[in-house]
Amino acid sequence: MTTLLTFGDSNTHGTPPIETRGLYRRYPPGIRWPTLAAATLGWDLVEEALPGRTAQFDDPVMDGIMNGWPALRQALQSHGPIDWLTIMLGTNDSKTRFGAEAPQLAAGIAGLLDLALGDEMQTRHGGFRVLLIAPVPVEERGVLAGEFFGAPAKSRALAPLLAGLARHRGLRFLDAGQHATVSPVDGVHLTPEGHEALAKAVAGRLSEG
User: Fold this and answer.
1) In the beta sheet, which residues pair with residue 54?
2) pTM
């Protein structure tokens, strides 16, 4: 059985659009895109996603534990062997408080790829492949608008950089923004329809040759 590990933030975790801050909610299985994609493919699934996760920053506003680099190392040490890894991060790195532009966002994701594709993790799992997913661009909307001031331009600029990064690393790539849009409620999170569309796109890319 093929095993897929999906690594990401709230849009991989399945957080619905936020209207009230501080209220935890999550879409059930059958709505979340990782569960839909795995079911379509008939694969085993490991969901490893945390709302607020970044590719590279310790976030003092969120307990200082959101850096994806140690989290990915722990996930790859905890689970396996896996056959495919999806990475979809960068949304939270675009928050105003980090002051990062698109090239720095891409650099953080490059660091995750260095870890995943390095000899240690590849040997541990007997080799696995990576699908790099550029997240859906954000908008300044609703209760999250202040945190993401200036982020729309950064997030729109990220996909071409990640496409180039994937090409140079010989990885499969998907631009999620070509298949889904963020909810107008908060400008960050996906609707059930967005999850369904993204799941179809991911399953399609993973099933190619």
Assistant:
1) 67
2) 0.97
